[in-house]
Amino acid sequence: MKFNLNRYLLGLSFAIDCVESELLGVTTNHGKRVAYVSMRMAKAMGMSDAEIFDIAALAILHDNGLAEERLTHHGGHADRLYQVEDLPAHCLIGEGNVSAFPFQRVVPGIINDHHEHWDGSGFFGRQGDAIPLMAQIIGLADYTDLVCRFQTPDPANWATIHDFVNQRKGHAFSPDLVDVFRQVSTSPAFWYDLHDPFIQAALDRTMSEWTVEITWERVLEISRVFSRIIDSKSRFTLSHSCGLEEKVGHMADHFNKGAEERLKLRIAASLHDVGKLAIPNAILDKPGKLTDEERQTVTIHTYYTRLCLERIPGFEEITEWAANHHEKLDGRGYPLGLGKEALDFNARLMTVLDIYQALTEERPYRKSLSHRRTMEIIGKLRDSGEVDAQIVDEVDRAFS
Ligand SMILES: [Fe+2]
Ligand SMILES: [Fe+2]
Ligand SMILES: [Fe+2]
Ligand SMILES: [Fe+2]
Predict the structure, then answer these.
(1) Can 2-212 and 215-399 be said to share one CATH topology?
(2) Domain boundaries, the chain
(3) Of all helices (H) and strands (E), which one includes residue 260?
(4) 112, 197, 339, 360: which is deepest, by most CB within 10 A?
(5) Most distant pair of Cα atoms in the chain: their distance
(6) How far is the CA of 273 from the centre of ligand 3 (A)?
(7) Mean pLDDT, residues 235-248 taken together
(8) Ligand 1 centroid distance, CA of 91 (Å)
(9) Which of 11-25, 133-147, 246-260, 280-294 is predicted least confidently?
(10) In this structure, which CATH number among 1.10.10.10, 3.20.20.70, 1.10.3210.10, 1.10.10.60 belongs to the domain 215-399?
(11) φ and ψ of 363, to 5 deg
């Protein structure tokens, strides 16, 4: 089938940017801005469409390793992105996470090297042209955005940014790239494009359509790039999305689903909690009971899952199955409060299996539960009309 890779990437970029927005407490669109500046520079340097797609994808994904980084080094309490970015591990983790992404031309090592400096003063001491060119471009956009904030609307900031970049010519940045940056940043529109309200439109305009002939199997493999990032956010969910994907596949066989439906269900499972990237770890990893306000905060994750997936052509059913996994048949689920008429069989299946998967995993406030104990709890939800009775009974049979 034909699949629009850039729609897919732009949809999920929202969730990746949430990782960093958690660190700063605001939606900053950092990855999108780094992608925009990198693409403008790549175009000015005469890179091919395939290379421009790659640099946009890499820029959007460049800080994906922060999802896990926060966990291992900061216990979920980093207060500023700049401090967290200043750690080499997020480069290594990020590089490993994206190895299955279908880049067009790219050589490995770009995310790994996005904090290298031209003069060798970066994390790993690589120097000059030993740093891949795309890593140099992303590095310039990234470093400059972190310090000077491209989104600051004040035109005085334009001069500040030019001074910042110029002062680092031949030090942090290659002299040639500093010249390219100057060239692309002469027009006021370049700066307006970087403001939060306009960055999405600017990306849509700058990134050419990238439609590829691809199988659903391959889309599943790419989706696992994201499910790995999602699961890495908390040690309690390390196997949540992949475990759900496996169980959904098992039940799809159990119910004799066709090959394509089965793959779509697995894709929905692998991305169902992508919105969790926007939920602070302080809530996800809280050892005690959540307050009412914290519980409300968690409910936004499926709203975000819908936002990420709904604009991807071909993902219409996947979006419903993924984003409705906390909806209940009695209309008392979230975030839409849909009733049974609006929830098809696969959405109901996803709900039951998500509960099953979560209860059989350890949580900060309890140990993992056995199949029996899990089915007792799900049985109560069945009896109160919240989840589908037939599906509950079949899940019990399939996993006992
Ligand atoms: Fe970084
Ligand atoms: Fe960054
Ligand atoms: Fe969820
Ligand atoms: Fe989940």
Answers:
(1) yes
(2) 2-212, 215-399
(3) helix 259-271
(4) 112
(5) 69
(6) 5
(7) 93
(8) 6
(9) 11-25
(10) 1.10.3210.10
(11) -130, 165
Closest listed ligand to the CA of 354 = 4
C-alpha distance across the termini of the chain, in Å = 37
Q: Could you tell me which CATH class the domain 2-212 is placed in?
A: mainly alpha
Q: What is the DSSP letter of 26?
A: S
Give the per-residue pLDDT at 279. 87
Q: How far is the CA of 136 from the centre of ligand 3 (A)?
A: 37
Q: Is the pLDDT of residue 149 over 70?
A: yes
Handedness of CA 389, 390, 396, 399 (dihedral sign): negative
The 10s digit of each residue's pLDDT in 24-78 is 555 578 899 999 999 999 999 999 999 999 999 999 999 888 877 454 444 444 3
Report yes or no: 391 and 348 within 8 Å, Cβ to Cβ: yes
| Distance between Cα 9 and ligand 2 center (Å) | 17
Cα Rg of the chain, angstroms: 22
Residue with tokens 């936004």, as numbered in its chain:
300
Chain position carrying tokens 């996005």: 114
Q: How far is the CA of 119 from the centre of ligand 4 (A)?
A: 45
Question: Which two structure tokens, joined as six digits, stand for 278?
Answer: 């926007």
Ligand 3 centroid to residue 99 C-alpha, Å: 26
**Residue in 233, 245, 164, 157 with CA at minimum distance from that of residue 195:** 157
Q: How many CA atoms lie within 13 A of 275 on its CB side?
A: 23
Specify the pLDDT at position 331: 97
DSSP calls for 27-79: ---HHHHHHHHHHHHHHHTT--HHHHHHHHHHHHHTTTTHHHHIIIIITT---
pLDDT at 74: 46
% pLDDT > 90, the chain: 72
3-state secondary structure of 211: strand
- pLDDT tens digits, residue range 332-372? 999 999 999 999 999 999 999 999 999 999 988 889 999 99
Q: For residue 333, which ligand has an atom nearest its CA?
A: 3
Structure tokens at 272: 């169902």
Look up residue 126 and give its DSSP letter: -
Return the residue matching tokens 């307050």.
Answer: 291
Which residue(s) pair with 3 in the sheet? 212
Residue 62 CA to ligand 1 center (angstroms) comes to 6
